[in-house]
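Ops channel
N.P.: pipeline sanity check, posting one input/output pair.
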């Protein structure tokens, strides 16, 4: 994990500069990379940013009047709507300041767009007491209190500045629209999200520029950065107009492009950048490769542009890459100036000291000296091979779905039976062999969980096309029955003590009831107080049970929100810090860490982990859909994420792993698989092995699944790329999983030399599923790695 902060001495600000090299390895004159090294100086930087804002306001106040917003209503005296109307009517450039009472957020619920701005003015949210501009070098730590809900601002004027405002749930054609005029500024705003960039608060476009030029969105100062996310359209849409600069902004999780130039986006680069259009259809940088070196992150690429022109290149990082390989910009990485000579193209090799995690993606923009900013470049992954995939077989047909993995590496799930089969049977994959677990007499069965004793639970069809929970052990499937008043049941989890949880239902309607099965007896464990339905989804070795409970809110039996509970020592307690849960699966470990899928009120699903008592909203992976599926004893979670709202679109679905505050696309850190193949990460064991599928089934009882091809599988085990070392006298004995085929051991004495790695002499021999190599080092200080060309 790469630290976001390297703490300098008290009162010290460290500015790092790096040389930029051309393709021949020679320094490019006047080209510097500049990036703040530390974000741990909030006090001093916040003070500087506040003085910066005050001075900016003073300059405006010297040329016009100040109109104060003291009323958070939609209209009337002292409201923002009235202040804009008054500033429009007065001559000169004026300032709108905020002095709303009390502390905390200041929501202003708008029933329509605010009056079109037709006169120069500054609307400054930083004037509200408690607000604070951003001071973070790569992300955002601003406090934006003035929040405009349901409407936005239209600008048809020159010399307008909008700063320090939050735009939420604007259902028009853009939270901020430019419909005319020029030389306007939007800075320090959050549009469609909150200051953390983790929550969906968007609806329409972010910023739309139409028939307007020479505007600035963001800026080169960190206090000017905007956060623009979770909008249904582009983050910044420049429909027409030129010389519109878009600098330093974090633009991510929008349904389409982060920056869009014209209706034909995404645009392609042209030689010499001679085409015209919105922002002159400025070419973006072509990124060839990104990699870590001894000096930091090295980004190689080139830019085709107009001769003898200087361009500002800005680099961004993100955990995701979406929409035809065009990336998002969650983290600001750094910038450089690049001058193109007489050949219309210039290569660059930029070294950045930047908080980009291995396995994340890098993208870039280019802005010419007239202020025309490009779209984002296609993203390039920062290499971080950490897993090797082993395919799991099928039951004769290509389709199989893995659901759970135990600590031995056994997998359970369900698969089509036979080459032409449409029946779906539970399977057990163990030691390289697929086993059909059969049914309880019906056509279909599904395995949902397995313990370390290779006992399997799930559901199987019985007579009358109904389903009963089953326990498979010692080669036989046992019907667990159901609870009184219910005619169907489903077993969701089993621990090593043989306790089983799940829920029972009525086929023709009625509320589900959670059960605990133990020693041959199935018991209804009840609901939270006042509720009428419940389901049990997971349990640990102590017998703690995680599930959901809901109130019946109508005479027709309509269920209310699904509230999470933890049942411990026979007492069912609500987990109040989690929002409404969405759907099984969910998991619970021995420390009562857990992972779930929840809906926090923004209309989309999020993966949530609770580790050590702290709640981590996965932030929708900077996307619009997330799902948490499993967690191991180390608190590492896996699930899935998509850039589409609601039910995931398989074209953009990706498996993810969440650990230590960061989330990763497993496709980017796994070897030997086509890009984007994997869709769901379903389970992770305590050895770090991950079960992933290249397709997924959202409905538990949907049988018409589309096979992917006769000779392929949908299920993969992802083995961590690691090895063990044991000293034996003067020798070191290395061993690693034989599934990691094609790797060889290398050694080096100096990590600062990328070319210093050499192969270790000797041949690896197999011992079962382990490869062993014995090596006698030439000296005491050595580094080793598994490597594959």
């Amino acid at each position: 994990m790469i630290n976001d902060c390297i703490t300098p001495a008290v009162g010290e600000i460290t500015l790092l500069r790096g040389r930029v090299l051309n393709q021949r390895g020679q320094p490019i004159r006047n080209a510097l990379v500049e990036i703040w090294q530390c974000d741990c100086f909030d006090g001093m930087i916040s003070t500087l940013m506040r003085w910066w804002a005050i001075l900016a306001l003073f300059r405006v106040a010297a040329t016009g009047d100040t109109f104060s917003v003291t009323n958070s209503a939609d209209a009337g005296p002292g409201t923002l709507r009235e202040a804009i109307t008054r500033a429009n009517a007065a001559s000169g450039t004026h300032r709108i300041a905020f002095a709303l009472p009390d502390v905390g957020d200041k929501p202003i619920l708008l029933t329509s767009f605010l009056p079109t701005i037709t006169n120069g003015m500054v609307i400054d949210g930083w004037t509200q007491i408690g607000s604070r501009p951003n001071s973070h070098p790569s992300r955002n730590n601003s406090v934006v209190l003035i929040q405009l809900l349901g409407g936005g601002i239209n600008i048809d004027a020159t010399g307008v500045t909008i700063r320090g405002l939050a735009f939420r749930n604007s259902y028009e054609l853009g939270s901020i629209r430019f419909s005319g005029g020029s030389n306007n500024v939007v800075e320090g705003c959050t549009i469609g999200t909150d200051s953390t960039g983790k929550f969906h608060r968007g609806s329409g476009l972010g910023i739309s520029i139409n028939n307007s030029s020479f505007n600035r969105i963001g800026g080169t100062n960190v206090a000017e950065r905007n956060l623009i996310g979770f909008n249904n359209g582009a983050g910044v849409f420049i429909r027409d107009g030129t010389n519109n600069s878009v600098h330093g902004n974090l633009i991510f999780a929008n349904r389409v492009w982060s920056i869009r130039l014209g209706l034909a986006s995404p645009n392609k680069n042209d030689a010499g950048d001679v085409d015209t259009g919105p922002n002159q259809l400025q070419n973006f940088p072509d990124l060839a490769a990104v990699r870590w070196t001894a000096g930091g992150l090295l980004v190689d690429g080139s830019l085709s542009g107009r001769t003898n022109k200087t361009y500002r290149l800005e680099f961004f990082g993100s955990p995701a890459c979406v929409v035809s390989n065009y990336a998002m910009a969650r983290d600001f990485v750094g910038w450089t100036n690049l001058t193109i000579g007489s050949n219309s193209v210039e290569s660059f090799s930029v070294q950045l000291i930047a908080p980009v995690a291995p396995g994340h993606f890098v993208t870039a923009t280019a802005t010419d000296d007239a202020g025309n900013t490009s779209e984002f470049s296609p993203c390039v992954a920062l290499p971080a091979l950490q897993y090797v995939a082993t395919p799991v077989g099928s039951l004769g047909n290509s389709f199989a779905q893995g659901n759970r993995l135990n600590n031995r590496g056994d997998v359970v799930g369900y698969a089509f039976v036979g080459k032409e089969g449409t029946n779906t049977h539970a399977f057990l994959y163990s030691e390289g062999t697929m086993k059909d677990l059969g049914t309880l007499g019906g056509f279909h069965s599904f395995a949902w969980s397995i313990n370390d004793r290779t006992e399997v639970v799930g559901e199987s069809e019985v007579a009358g096309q109904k389903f009963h929970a089953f326990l498979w052990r010692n080669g036989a499937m046992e019907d667990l029955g159901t609870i009184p008043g219910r005619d169907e049941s489903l077993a969701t989890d089993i621990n090593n003590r043989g306790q089983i949880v799940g829920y029972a239902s009525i086929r023709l309607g009625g509320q589900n009831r959670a059960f605990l099965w133990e020693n041959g007896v199935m018991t209804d464990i009840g609901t939270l107080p006042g509720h009428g339905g419940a389901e049990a989804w997971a349990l640990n070795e102590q017998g703690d049970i995680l599930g959901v409970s809901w109130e019946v809110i109508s005479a027709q039996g309509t269920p209310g929100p699904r509230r999470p509970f933890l049942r411990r020592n026979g007492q069912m307690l609500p987990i109040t810090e989690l929002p409404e849960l969405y759907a099984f699966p969910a998991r619970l470990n021995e420390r009562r860490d857990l992972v779930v899928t929840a809906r926090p009120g923004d209309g989309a699903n999020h993966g949530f982990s609770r580790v050590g008592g702290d709640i981590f909203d996965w932030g929708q992976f900077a996307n619009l859909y997330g799902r948490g599926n499993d967690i191991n004893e180390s608190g590492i979670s896996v699930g899935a994420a998509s850039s589409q709202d609601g039910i995931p679109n398989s074209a953009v679905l990706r498996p993810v792993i969440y650990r230590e505050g960061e989330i990763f696309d497993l496709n980017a850190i796994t070897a030997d698989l086509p890009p984007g193949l994997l869709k769901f990460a379903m389970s992770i064991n305590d050895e770090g092995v991950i079960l992933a599928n290249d397709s997924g089934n959202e409905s538990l009882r949907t049988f018409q699944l589309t096979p992917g091809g006769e000779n392929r599988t949908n299920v993969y085990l992802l083995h961590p790329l690691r090895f063990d070392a044991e000293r034996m006298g003067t020798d070191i004995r290395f061993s690693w999983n034989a599934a990691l085929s094609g790797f060889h051991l290398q050694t080096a004495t100096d990590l600062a030399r990328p070319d210093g790695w050499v192969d270790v002499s000797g041949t690896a021999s197999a011992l079962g599923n382990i490869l062993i190599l014995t090596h006698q080092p030439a000296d005491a200080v050595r580094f080793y790695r598994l490597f594959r060309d």
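N.P.: looks fine end to end. The two ends are 24 Å apart (CA to CA).
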